[in-house]
Every structure is written in C-alpha cells, then in structure tokens.
C-alpha cells in the first residue's frame, strides 16, 4: 500500500512491533510524535511496565522466610538448607514470579525505548535497566540451582539421578554466556527465515487489524465519554507486552516442532510472502541483515543489554576479516555440528532462502532417488575397480535407491529418533528436567507453562544444532530400546594387564626411550615432577584419573527411556543406518571418530565398503581399491608416502668444481612408508607383527600402543631412516667416511606428521599404530602392498580365495543385494534370499588372482594350480605357527593378549647395549628411589609377587649360579683354610696363590670399577649358554642338560657337616693352579678376547671344573666331598642318574644329524635341491611342501632361542639356502641342512695351518700307544657341547653375511654362531680347541702369564729358545701335555697313568676349555670319563669322530 503525504506533514516516529519498520501514518498525537494508534500503544506500554514495577516492589516485601533469613546472596545461594518439598515450592513460586515480572519489565522498557524513542538516549533509564538485567540474571541462576535442589529432593533415590546430575554438570561447564546465546538465537532465526515468515505475516496482519479496530474504538469511546462525562481508563488494554511474550514463545515452539517433524497448526503452516523485497544474490552483508529483520543488528540492540554491566564488550576492530564458517551449505536432515568445527558458532551465511533442516518429503525423495557420491574429501589418486560385486556400475557414482516401503519405515524410525534426541537434550538442562519427568509426551512438555522462555531458547538452539555425539546416542537409544546388554569387565581386566612394574617400565625406556614422547630422562626431571599432578606435563595423558565404569541405568523423559550407556558401547548397524541418513553431510571420517571400540569401527568400515549406507560422503576408502582391500583385512592405513621412486636419486657428477660438489647430494635414498591402525590385543595383529619382524629383507615395522603411546616393537636405530642423503667430493666415493645425513626417520616427528595428515582418528584406544617401510630404497609402491597383503592373508590364516571373507562372515552373511536397485541391505527375519557371503563364496563365484609373474588368473578354484602353493596359509605355516605362537595352544590363555616380542637371553643382552648385571642393579636402585607421584602418573605398580614378568624383561644372567661370587662350597672351605694353622708347605702355597686377596663377592661399586667389558663378557657367557641350550633340538637334550646343571650347581652349594674331613678337595684345586702357574685371584682383566687369563674368576672356574670331573672318580680321596653330597638328602636323587652309567650312554647313539659341513657331503646329497634351484620357477614356489613342513619349525625354534636373527640383507646377496634331507642313520627323518654356494670364497681365505678333517689326529691309536707299559692307565673322552645345527663359536657382525641363508619362505637369516653346515666348520671348532690347549700348554711350560723370565729355574729348560709364528706359536718344544692330551675337532682325549692323575689332567683341560670367555662347556652326557683301554676300544666309532 502506498501512502501519499504532503512534504510538510509530520510522520509517526514509532516502529511497528511486528516487523520493526517505521510507521507511515501521520503523527497527530503526543506533540505530533506518534499517530493515534501508536500514541495509545506507547502510553499503554508505559503504564504497563510502571504497574509491573509496582508489583515487583510489592513482591519484594513478601519474600519467603528462607530467603529473608539467608545470609548468602541470591547469586551464590545453594539451597542446601531446604529439606522439604513445601519449602522448595514456596521459594520456587516466589523466584519464578519474580523472574517473569523482571522479564516483562525489562522487555517492556526495551520495546518502549526501541520502538518509540529510539532517537533519544536516557542514561538514567539505561542504568536502571542494567540493574534489572543483573537482578534477572541472578534470579535465573538461583532458579536453576533451585531446580537442581528440587530434583535432588524428588529423585535422589532414583538409580539414574547421579548419572543425570553428572550430565548436567558437564553441560554447565560448557554453557555459553547469555550474550552469545542471543547472537546464536538471531543467527538461528535468520537460518530459518522461511519457517518464521508465516508467524511474521500473522503478526503484521494482527497489528493492522488492531490499528483499524483502534480507530473505530477510539471514536466510539470519545463519543461515549462525551455522553457520560467520564474519562476512559482502558490504558492496560493497549499494553502489547503480553502479545510480544506470547509471540516469542510461539516462535520457539514452532521451531522445535519443525525440527522434530511435529504437526504445526494449519493457520501457521500457510506461508505468506513477506512485505520486504528479496535480497539480491550480490547484496552486501549489511543489506542482508536489514532485509532479514532481526539480524545481528537486533542482537546488538536488544541483546547487548542482556550482558551484565560488569562485563566489558570487546569492540570489533575496523578492517578485520570475519571468520568464515566451516559448515557446508545445502540442506541436511539434522544440522549436526561437525567435530572438526567450532560447536555453537552461528552461521555466517544466513541466506533467507536456505533451510538447514530437511522435511520428511525431502528425505523420502533423497532415499528413493539416491544421491551423487562425493569423493572430493579423498586425498591422493583414486584407483577404483568398477563392475565387480563389491562396486557395480549402477552404484559407482550414485547411491542405490531405497524402495518405498523401506523409505517409509526409515522415516518413521528417524522421527522417533528425533524425539529421543530431543529428550537427550532436555536431560542436560537442569531447569527443564522436572517438567520433562512429569510429562508423558513431547507435546505435553512443550505445553507446560512453567518453562521459561530463556530455557526454550536454549533448548531450541540445542535441537537445531545437535552434536554428532548426541545424534549417535539418540540412534543408539532407539536401536536398544528398553533392553540392556552385559558387556562384562573387559576394560578392568585390560587395564590390569597393561599395568607394568616399575622395573619393566624402566627397562622398556632403556630400550625405546628415544622413540617415545616422554623419555625416562625427561620423566625424572624436576620440571616434569612438578607437572605431574593433574597437568599436561611431559608424561602426557595417563589412565590413573579415569572415572570408574558407570552402572547401566535409564531415565524416562517425556515418556521415552534414555539409557546412560548409549554412548559407551557399540551401536548396531541399524543405528548407523539412521545416523548416516540424518547426518548426511557428515563424512565417514567423522563417523569413525564416534565409534567406541575397534569391533564397532571395523563393522562400520565393512558396511561402508559394501555400500550399505545411502550417504554421499561415506565413500570411506572405497575410492582406492588397494587401500580398501587392506582395510577389509584389518589393516587400516591412515598415512601413506609412496614417493620413494621419485625421491631416490643417484647423481654422478663429473666435471664440477669441488666447492659445488660438496654442497650437492650425490646420493638421495628414500623408502616408501605406510602407517596404519590394527586391532590391539588381537591374535591376527600379533601374527602380522611377528611375520613382519621376520621379513627384514623386505620391510621394517614399528608398532606403537594407541592406549599409552608406548613402543611395542621397533627395529634397531640404524634401520629407522626413511630418507637419507650423502654428500662429498667425487674422490671420496660413495662408501666414503662422511656417512649419511638422515633427513627423515621413524620417530616422534614421523608419528606427529602421520597423525596430523592422517585420514581418520579414533576416540578409543583399542588399536596399535603400525608403521611399515621398505628395506630397499626406491621400491615400487605395489611391492610394499603385496608384502603387507600376503602377510595379512597368513595372519588371518586364509587357506583359499573364499577364505578371505571368513573373518567377516558374521557381517556379510546377514546382507543381501537387491537385483533391481542394486542396494545392499539387511536380510529381514524369515526372508529367504541369497546373502552376499553365499554369493561371493558359492561354487559359481569367479575370482581374479595375480600370480608372482604378474599375470591375472580367472578361476573358480580356491587355490588355482597356476599360482604359488604358498600364496595362502597351509600346513607349512601351521607347523611354523605352532612354534612361534605356542601360547595359542595352551589352555586358559585369553585371545586378547597384548603383543610381546619374541625375545630370548641373547636378544635381551643385545638391545640393552649394557651389561645386564649392572643394568639390573641400577634399575633396582632407581625403582627404590622413584618418586611416588611419578609412579602413580605412569600407572605403574611394584614388582609382582607372582613373577608374571613379560618374557625375559627381568632376565638376570647366571641368577642360579655364581657369576660374581665364589660358590658356597668354597666359602666354607675358605673359612677352614683361613682359620687353621697349616704346615710350612701349604702356608707358602697360600701366599704364592694370593689366597688372602680373594674377594668372595664383588659389590656393585667393584663391578663398576672393573670395567664394562669384563662385566659384559661375564654376563654374555651365561646369556649365550642359556640360548645355546634353548636351541638344542636333539630330543631330550634340554632335560638332560638341566639335570646335569642341577647336579653341578647343587654340589657347589653344598655345605658339608664334616668339612674338615673333606678339605682335601680345596688343596687339590690350589695345587692344580700352582701346577699351572696361576694364582687364585687376579685384580685385573685381560681385554684380549682369546686370552683365557688373568681375571677375577679363576677360582670359580677351577672349582666348577673339579666338581664336573670329580663326579666320575669316586675312588679318589679328594672327591670324598662329592660322594658325601650324593649320599646326602640334597643329592641322593642323582645317585641313579644315567650320567654315571657310561655303558648305557655309549650304547645309544644320539638322535641328531651329523656334524659334517656342506662341503664335506657327497654331491648326491644335494642332488634334489640342485634341480629345484636350477628350475624355471622361483625356489620358494617350487619348494617341496614336506621339506617346508619339516624345517620351518626348526628355523622358528632357532629364532626363538636367539641363535639366528632375521637379516636385513637382499636375497641376491645371501649365499645359503635352507634345505631338508635325511641321513642313513636317521632314515625318514628330515632335518635342516644349508647348502652354501660360496665355497670358493672360503677356500681363498683359509690360513696356511689349515688341515683337512681326514688329517685330524686319530684318537684310538694315541690311546693304545700311551697305554703301553701302563697297566693302570685311564682315559677320558671330553666332548665340547654343541647343538645339532651350530657350534658355540661367535660370528662377528661383519662375518655373518658369509653364513646367512634363505628359508623356504624367502626370508633372510643370519647366524650368530658358526653353523655346522658352514664351509670348513670342522676346522673352526678344531682350531678353537687347539688354541685353548695351546694356552694350557704355554702355562705348563712356563711361557704363559705371571712369568718374569723366559726360564723357570725350578723346572729347568723345557723349551727351545726359538721364535714361532702364526698358528704354530704353541709348538715350541716338548711338553708333558703332548703325550697326555690329543684332540680331534671338538673331541679331546685325556690320558692318565692312574685315576688321580687322570683327574688332575681332566680338571686342567676342562678348566682351560671352559674359562674365559666362558662360552664353551664340556658335555657330560656325551663325554666318557675314567675308562680303561678296553672300554675305549669297544666304543662305537661315532663317539671317536
């Protein structure tokens, strides 16, 4: 309507209450300020708030007794003293009435000033208004506190009360300020402008009608007043505040109903076009705000006063940029706040034509027609296979349509979920909870007049923008209904299993501290100690402050049950289906972050890969077929860098100046790297990690625990580089001394980068972070994919193509695909349709398999004949797994055990890089002094009483023996010798042997002063021998060794009750040392590796040698103490041991392979292997299965024992191949034999003193010669212990490549000790015995240690004054040893004129063989001591080889 006025005609300055536009009528009243209508309205409004002010003042005089007597201010009131419901009701009635009056007074004053006197500023009015706002804020806060107290009095006995109170407390902590809520309200109304147009049109129509009625009524009243002579007093009728309040409340209720898809009255549903013109697309932000009505300008004008005057508003800087909203445009069913966005921020792009909430019709259309798939959020190249069962052409670019009946059912269920979501939002609001508990329906709740408008505003904001977590909880509530689930106490058990002892934690940080974000050195620093209690210090998040698990309970709100554990457990797939429809703009990565455990995530992932959800952005990893394949197998990549080929360069610069060349990277090498998640404490994950650890010739693996950030396993530091470069001049060569500059390595920096660039993140901790990178730089990405894929197949124990879906059968077996729509859906109860699993694994299913040669084979067979028989899991893998994962076969062992690296004594020594004895003692001291607050923060516990240590983490070398103390049997003898007066000869002997210098036990300080090498070699001897015997695979050998060690150790611990009667054994040992020109104790250590003395442990070695040999000489006087032990209670169990039965032992040949090296075996022995190696196929594919079944467990046992280790060496550089074969003395028993192809290299490096095995001395002729003329001659065959497959001779690190080998699976292995199959291995052990006997010979001749002159005057000239070199250094003249001792490889023949003489020589030889470096032992079970010649001649020739 166009109003024509004269220019001079004054216009009404009032603003319409309906739309805020200036009135166009002529100003005729109030000094021509307002029109007649607005003059009446202004006066009525003024009188109204004056009247309410009077009511407010009168209300203060009738204050309840509780508030009148309370000393606390209203804002700080807790109402804890209110104990009866009547008192609470009285106070609540008073405060609520005060709150309503204050609201109406404030609103009336604001409207009066804004709409009638907006051009004037009354500072007194503004100050009074601020006072009212502060008072109202205090009353509102008191009301909320009183509501909480009311709920406590009414429902304290309810099971759900504590849980609801916790939810409310959490909500109160995150509650926005009042000013922010008003701005959010304004933004919400702008977003839903179209829904509010109906109410705005109705308000305009009502105001216009009232204007017309006002004119007619005014004329009538004037006429009636003139007739009656009375003045009109109907000003209250013109007060619009009640209509304003009713309209505001109606707007909130209408928006809530619109959000919840509830019916709206028909009069309000009709949309009337607004009078204001639409805003052009290119209009400015200010013009949009003006066109939108109550925009941010209204919020600033009306809402600014809601801020308490004590708070200062921050002015906006001119020229500053506004933050852009991250929320995507377009409609969505529920405007769920994305986790990656700022929750609660108002939209910065209101747009009057945009609706944030879809209607039922919109959702139905979207489901029935499908939507375009959105792949824009996927990083990197896409590689999709279209046309497969998993990804049909019909659904490659668009989601499958949903049938009408299914869509109708989904919409009906979503409607109910919206109600549950609404109830969950109410539950967190303490002021609304009592009304919600009283109401039996949502409509009844909305009709409750006791609900304040501000509470409705807060609720409206919550429902309009729920969080994804709240939406998920509502979906879970709907799926679970009134039923509960018993989830057990798995979390508590898991937490208990994760608790480490202090010693374990410290030991772990000695090994992996450099890879963790809080190394032990930082954790023990004073700074971090101060940061421990309740702070984000260096230690990061711990589990000590975690709240206990809540008890399952529910509360009924608006007639619907809400469970407290909906967000704690897994949500069923039906709930995720509803969620994907309601939060349609949510990405799959956001959905992942809402999963509560791995099983829920994994099922959600599989359903997404098979297109179960009709969501456009839930494409997940389906954009990359290779990634999707790994994910389906349980390996979830979140970071990948496959740029190794591009970044690996080898620049050969020739004609360049040296200055330029030094700055140029001649070589840059890069490795591909993949970071992925795998399920924590899962058998498949444990197997995969173990398989990867054994393939260091292809890849390296590092594993972090997602629960606590600890390193589970990692390679050595030298293998952790990802990108490295080498610089230098051309004359330095590529193997120069400048070394490599590591630019990127596996460590904390890589962990951080991977997490920042990661595609998905979890909110649970039930996972491992697995980092894998190539062994070789510059490899193709597909090579790594195949390595990971093949290992996953073996870890899942997939025996054929159809077995690849076995682990997800519980998911795929309940899904079907509709043939007409190609939609994947749940199979309904009682429905007879083909499941996806049956379709994929049926007999007619066809598969494409890629062979090792790169060809694709189309087949229906599980294991096609064209591929390698070792592609899938078979009996060879099963045999190996029985050794690697032997705990799986044990009873009462849970499947959810954490991964523990296979370790052994040798591995423990190697990774610690320090003597274990010193390390253990330092750890014990550190554990005793660890601050209690640090111990609690690290979630540690003291050492376990039940000895539940992780593998060998608490391994102590020689714990049952005497590594740094003399045996107790010598301590007893020592006291007797020290306290007894002896004759002159024995007294002088004690002085000569330094008897008084003996230290019975070395302290920690003495060990520290002794030096690292000494303690390390002493520790190493016990460590190696423990691993040696773990690798002894001869049947019964380990049990026999344990029996012999129990006998020897028990004898050394024996305390004789008649020690003085048996003291001769001690003098025998002392005289023997004097005979060898050695002392009993040296306060020094010879660092030469081969030198057997001097050292501090001479006494321990000679005592052990005597006890071992004395077992077989019961008739010699000096061994009486041994016989006493065997007759005692401690030793009588050994009397019947077969170790003393020489005849029985020699009659049984050991069940073990022969010791011949590969070069000494006939060519026919290797004939079958040579055919395999020379064939067309790769030897791994052509390897006989029976061979693999036989030797892979053997290799696994050697690996577990620590004598072999996975080699980081290319297969082409490995000289050996593991084969299987039988021998004549063991027909039908396949054993491990290694064929080496580098025999010529060994022949080139042999020393001049090398002799062939056939030329070794023959023992029987030497014994016969010695026995001539000696009727009492006795003999002993001492054989050094060796395992069936190796000798106890160390392999230096730089020599291991010469004996490495490939196993049947193509994995590279290094020997740590000389294998018996190595070329000329016989010479290695023969030469070692030669050297040890040479040192003994040197001592006997007076050429060894402790001789100041080259001639021993007491013994006379025993050698020629000549020089010798090389291996002949011990062949200098004649020695008595030459006619008493003869050796052949590892077998030593010792000869004596009688038993005592033989005991002396056997003890001396055993002492020489077993002393420093303490790695060799005489095998008592394969030695024959104290024999006559006849017995020796009757021995099987095997025992003389």
UniProtKB/TrEMBL annotation:
| UniProt feature, compositional bias: Polar residues | 332-345
| Name of the featured protein | Uncharacterized protein
Compositionally biased spans, kind Basic residues? 313-326
Residue ranges for the region (Disordered) are 270-360
């Amino acid at each position: 309507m166009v109003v024509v006025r004269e220019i001079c005609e004054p216009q009404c300055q009032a603003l319409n209450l309906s739309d805020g536009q200036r009135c166009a009528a002529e100003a005729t009243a109030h000094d021509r300020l307002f029109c007649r209508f607005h003059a009446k309205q202004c006066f009525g409004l003024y009188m109204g708030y004056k009247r309410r002010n009077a009511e407010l003042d009168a209300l203060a005089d009738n204050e309840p007794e509780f508030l009148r007597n309370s000393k606390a201010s209203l804002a700080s009131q807790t109402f804890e003293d209110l104990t009866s419901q009547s008192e609470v009701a009285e106070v609540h009635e008073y405060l609520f009435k005060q709150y309503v009056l204050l609201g109406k007074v404030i609103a009336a004053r604001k409207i009066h000033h804004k709409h009638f006197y907006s051009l004037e500023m009354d500072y007194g009015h503004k100050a009074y208004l601020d006072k009212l706002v502060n008072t109202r804020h205090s009353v509102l806060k008191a009301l909320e506190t009183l509501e909480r107290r009311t709920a406590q009095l009414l429902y304290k006995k309810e099971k759900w009360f504590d849980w609801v109170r916790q939810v409310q407390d959490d909500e109160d902590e995150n509650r926005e300020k009042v000013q922010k809520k008003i701005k959010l309200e304004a933004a919400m109304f702008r977003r839903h402008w179209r829904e509010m147009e109906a109410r705005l049109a109705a308000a305009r129509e009502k105001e216009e009608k009232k204007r017309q009625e006002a004119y007619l009524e005014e004329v009538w009243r004037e006429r009636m007043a003139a007739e009656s002579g009375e003045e009109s007093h109907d000003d209250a009728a013109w007060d619009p505040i009640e209509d304003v309040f009713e309209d505001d409340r109606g707007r909130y209720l209408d928006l809530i109903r619109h959000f919840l898809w509830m019916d709206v009255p028909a009069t309000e549903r009709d949309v009337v076009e607004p009078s204001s013109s639409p805003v052009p697309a290119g209009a400015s932000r200010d013009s949009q705000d003006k066109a939108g009505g109550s925009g941010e300008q209204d919020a600033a004008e009306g809402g600014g006063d809601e801020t308490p005057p004590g708070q200062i508003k921050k002015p906006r800087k001119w020229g500053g940029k506004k933050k852009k909203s991250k929320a995507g445009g377009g409609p969505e069913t529920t405007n769920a706040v994305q986790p990656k966005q700022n929750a609660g921020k108002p939209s910065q792009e209101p747009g009057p034509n945009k609706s944030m909430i879809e209607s039922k019709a919109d959702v139905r259309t979207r489901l029935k027609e499908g939507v375009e798939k959105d792949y824009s959020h996927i990083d990197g190249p896409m590689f999709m296979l279209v046309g497969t069962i998993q990804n049909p052409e019909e659904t490659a670019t668009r989601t499958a349509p949903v049938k009408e009946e299914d869509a109708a059912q989904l919409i009906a269920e979503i409607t109910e979920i919206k109600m549950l979501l609404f109830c969950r939002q109410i539950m967190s609001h303490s002021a609304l909870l009592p009304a919600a508990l009283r109401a039996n329906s949502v409509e009844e709740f909305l009709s409750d007049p006791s609900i304040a408008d501000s509470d409705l505003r807060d609720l409206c904001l919550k429902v309009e923008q729920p969080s994804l977590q709240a939406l998920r909880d509502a979906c879970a509530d709907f799926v679970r209904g009134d039923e509960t689930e018993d989830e057990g106490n798995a979390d508590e058990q898991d937490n208990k299993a994760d608790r480490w002892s202090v010693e374990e934690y410290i030991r772990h940080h000695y090994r992996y501290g450099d890879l963790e974000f809080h190394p032990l050195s930082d954790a023990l620093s004073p700074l971090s100690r101060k940061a421990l209690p309740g702070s984000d210090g260096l230690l990061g998040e711990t589990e000590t402050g975690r709240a206990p698990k809540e008890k399952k309970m529910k509360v009924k709100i608006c007639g619907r049950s809400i469970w407290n554990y909906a967000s704690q457990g897994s949500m069923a797939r039906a709930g995720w289906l509803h969620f994907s429809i309601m939060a349609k703009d949510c990405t799959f990565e956001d959905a992942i972050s809402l999963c509560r455990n791995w099983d829920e995530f994994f099922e959600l992932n599989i359903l997404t890969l098979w297109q179960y959800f009709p969501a456009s952005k839930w494409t997940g990893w389906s954009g990359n077929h290779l990634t999707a394949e790994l994910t389906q197998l349980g390996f979830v990549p979140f970071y990948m860098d496959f740029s190794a080929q591009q970044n690996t360069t080898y620049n050969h610069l020739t004609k360049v100046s040296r200055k330029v060349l030094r700055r140029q990277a001649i070589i840059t090498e890069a490795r591909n790297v993949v970071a992925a998640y795998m399920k924590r404490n899962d058998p498949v994950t444990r197997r995969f990690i173990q398989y990867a650890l054994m393939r260091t010739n292809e890849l390296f693996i590092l594993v972090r625990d997602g629960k606590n950030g600890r390193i589970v396993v990692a390679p050595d530091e030298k293998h952790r580089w990802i990108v490295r470069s080498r610089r230098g001049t051309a004359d330095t060569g590529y193997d120069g001394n400048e070394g490599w500059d590591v630019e990127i390595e596996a460590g904390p920096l890589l962990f951080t980068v991977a997490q920042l660039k990661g595609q998905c993140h979890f909110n649970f901790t039930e996972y491992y972070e697995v980092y894998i990178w190539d062994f070789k730089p510059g490899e193709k990405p597909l090579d790594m994919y195949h390595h990971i894929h093949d290992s996953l197949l073996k870890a899942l124990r997939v025996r054929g193509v159809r077995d690849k879906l076995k682990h997800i059968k519980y998911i795929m077996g309940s899904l079907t695909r509709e043939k007409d729509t190609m939609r994947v859906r749940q199979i309904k109860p009682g429905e007879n349709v083909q499941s996806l699993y049956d379709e994929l694994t049926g007999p007619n299913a066809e598969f494409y398999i890629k062979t090792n040669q790169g060809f694709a084979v189309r087949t229906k067979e599980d294991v096609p004949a064209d591929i390698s028989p070792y592609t899938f899991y078979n009996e060879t893998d099963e045999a190996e797994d029985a050794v690697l994962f032997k705990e799986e076969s044990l009873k009462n062992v849970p499947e959810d055990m954490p991964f523990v690296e296979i370790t052994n004594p040798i591995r423990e020594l190697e990774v610690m890089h320090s003597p274990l004895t010193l390390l253990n003692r330092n750890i014990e001291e550190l554990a005793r002094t660890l601050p209690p607050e640090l111990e609690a923060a690290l979630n540690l516990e003291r050492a376990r009483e039940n000895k539940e240590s992780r593998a060998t983490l608490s391994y102590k070398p020689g714990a049952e023996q005497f590594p740094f103390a003399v045996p107790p049997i010598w301590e007893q003898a020592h006291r007797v010798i020290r306290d007894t007066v002896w004759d002159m000869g024995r007294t002088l002997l004690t002085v000569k042997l330094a008897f008084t210098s003996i230290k019975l036990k070395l302290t920690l300080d003495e060990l520290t002063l002794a030096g690292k090498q000494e303690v390390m070699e002493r520790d190493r001897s016990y460590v190696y021998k423990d691993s040696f015997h773990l690798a002894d695979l001869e049947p019964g050998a380990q049990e026999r060794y344990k029996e012999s060690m129990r006998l020897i150790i028990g004898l050394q611990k024996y305390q004789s009750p008649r020690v003085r009667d048996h003291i001769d054994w001690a003098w025998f040992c002392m005289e023997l040392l004097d005979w060898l020109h050695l002392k009993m104790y040296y306060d020094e250590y010879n660092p030469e590796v081969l030198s057997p003395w001097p050292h501090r442990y001479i006494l321990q070695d000679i005592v052990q040698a005597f006890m071992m040999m004395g077992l077989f000489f019961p008739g010699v006087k000096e061994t009486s103490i041994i016989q006493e032990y065997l007759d005692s209670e401690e030793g009588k169990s050994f009397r019947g041991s077969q170790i003393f039965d020489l005849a029985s032992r020699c009659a049984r040949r050991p069940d073990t392979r022969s010791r011949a090296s590969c070069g000494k075996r006939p060519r026919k022995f290797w004939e079958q292997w040579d055919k395999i190696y020379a064939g067309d196929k790769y030897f791994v594919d052509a390897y006989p299965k029976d061979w693999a079944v036989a030797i892979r467990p053997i290799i696994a046992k050697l690996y577990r024992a620590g004598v072999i280790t996975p080699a980081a060496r290319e297969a082409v550089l490995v000289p050996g191949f593991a084969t299987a074969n039988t021998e004549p003395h063991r027909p039908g028993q396949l054993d491990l034999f290694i064929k080496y192809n580098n025999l010529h290299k060994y022949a080139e490096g042999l020393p001049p003193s090398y002799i062939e095995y056939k030329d070794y001395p023959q023992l029987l002729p030497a014994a016969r010669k010695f026995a001539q003329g000696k009727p009492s001659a006795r003999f002993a065959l001492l054989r050094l212990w060796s395992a069936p497959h190796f000798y106890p001779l160390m392999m230096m690190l730089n020599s291991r490549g010469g004996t490495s080998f490939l196993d049947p699976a193509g994995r590279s292995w290094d020997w740590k000790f000389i294998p018996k199959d190595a070329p000329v291995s016989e010479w290695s052990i023969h030469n070692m015995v030669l050297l040890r006997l040479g040192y003994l010979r040197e001592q006997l001749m007076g050429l060894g240690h402790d001789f100041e002159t080259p001639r021993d005057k007491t013994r006379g000239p025993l050698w020629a004054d000549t020089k010798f070199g090389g291996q002949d250094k011990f062949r200098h003249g004649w020695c008595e040893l030459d006619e008493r001792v003869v050796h052949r490889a590892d077998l030593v023949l010792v000869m004596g004129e009688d038993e005592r003489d033989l005991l002396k020589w056997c003890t001396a030889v055993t002492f020489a063989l077993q002393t420093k470096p303490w790695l060799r032992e005489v095998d008592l079970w394969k030695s024959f001591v104290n024999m006559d010649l006849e017995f020796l001649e009757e021995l099987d020739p095997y025992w003389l080889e």
